[in-house]
Write a structure and sequence with these properties.
single chain; two-stranded antiparallel sheet; binds 3,4-dihydroxyphenylalanine; alpha+beta
Length: 341
């Protein structure tokens, strides 16, 4: 008879010790567990075993078989783990003193303009507020003096969620919450992403940015509004900007205006960009409607205020001469690459 079970076990472990590559493990598996393998061979010896001992013998051989199988498996797993560790160690090694060859990213033009405008308003005592993109009907419309079925809702078709909430159509949707949070007097701006169910073209997108602002205090008048807008725009464009107000209707302001700036491309002479009028529409605004102040818990006997909804996307397009609004949401790195790093 060949080796005893114990001898076979010892021999196996000795060989396993020496094995260190995938092929070597496979070789061992075939040598001991394969059809013609040594452990399999032990079972074939069964005939030579005394019948009363066979059961015990069979169980012992099976136990050895399992032991060998598990030991090989364990070694294979260990080898894999070691290989991975080596790989990680090799790729993670870096030299801090090497000059970088990686390109750095750039800010999106809307982010650049947003930060600039934020800074200007912050220097005039305005706080900067963040607000949800998902709002309810009350905040987006009702609190802004736009009751259900009011025709003004038609201009702001949007995306409704199953639970009745909606994606905000304008940053004005934050007015009520901000008035309730701070009360009067109050100076705040709140930039945000807005959504409308629009067919897109060079001037229209379903997703765009606005920057809303409100100022509420005693004796606030239209002259305050004009002063703040003119100062802000002159800073953004780094030159004195001429503005004009035209009447405009928005249910949440009374009186309401469209604020135009003199065309920056032709200097007011008239060109295709301003449809030969010499003026560009930039910022609807007005004196906050008493119903809106009341809904925000503000004492209308004591306070008045102005509000504006600056088209941030529009402003970025004008500042950087971007002709197609869709470039801004395209994610195209070539468009972004042109902006300040
Ligand atoms: N929320 C309006 C819109 O998106 C814009 C607007 C108009 C905002 C007048 C204002 C305002 O604050 O006073 O169409």
């Amino acid at each position: 008879m060949g080796m005893t079970m114990q001898e076979l076990r010892e021999q196996f472990y000795e060989k396993l010790q020496q094995a260190n590559a995938a092929e070597a493990f496979e070789e061992l598996r075939v040598r001991y567990l394969g059809k013609k393998g040594e452990i399999t061979g032990l079972l074939k010896n069964m005939g030579a075993i005394e019948p009363s001992m066979r059961k015990e013998y069979g169980a012992k051989v099976n136990a050895l078989k399992e032991e060998v199988e598990n030991s090989i498996k364990k070694r294979i797993e260990e080898a894999h783990a070691r290989e991975l560790e080596l790989k990680i160690a090799a790729t993670e090694r870096y030299d801090l003193t090497l000059p970088s060859t990686l390109e750095t990213g750039s800010y999106h033009p809307i982010t650049l303009v947003q930060r600039e405008v934020e800074q200007i308003f912050a220097s005039m005592g305005f706080t900067i507020e963040d607000y949800d993109e998902i709002v309810d009907d009350y905040h987006c419309f009702e609190a802004l003096n736009i009751p259900k079925h009011h025709p003004a809702r038609d201009m702001q078709d949007t995306y409704y969620l199953d639970n009745g909430q909606l994606l905000k159509t304008h940053t004005s949707a934050a007015q009520n919450a901000i008035m309730r949070k701070y009360g009067a007097p109050l100076r705040a701006i709140f930039p945000g992403r807005c959504f409308r169910n629009e067919s897109t073209d060079a001037c229209h997108e379903n997703t765009f940015f606005q920057m809303e602002g409100i100022m509420i205090d005693e004796n606030i008048s239209i002259s305050n509004l004009i002063y703040f807008m003119k100062t802000m725009l002159s800073e953004v464009f780094q030159r004195d900007i001429k503005v004009r107000l035209r009447p405009g209707f928005f249910p949440f302001v009374e009186p309401g205006f469209e604020l135009d700036i003199s065309c920056l491309i032709c200097g007011g002479e008239g060109c295709p960009s301003c449809k030969n009028s010499g003026w560009l529409e930039l910022c609807p605004c007005g004196m906050i409607h008493p119903n809106v102040l009341k809904a925000g818990g503000i004492d209308t006997e004591k306070y008045t205020g102005f509000a504006f909804g600056l088209g941030l996307t529009r402003l970025a397009m004008m500042k950087y001469g971007i002709k197609d609004i869709r470039d801004l949401n395209s994610g195209n790195l070539k468009s972004l690459d042109q902006f300040v790093k």
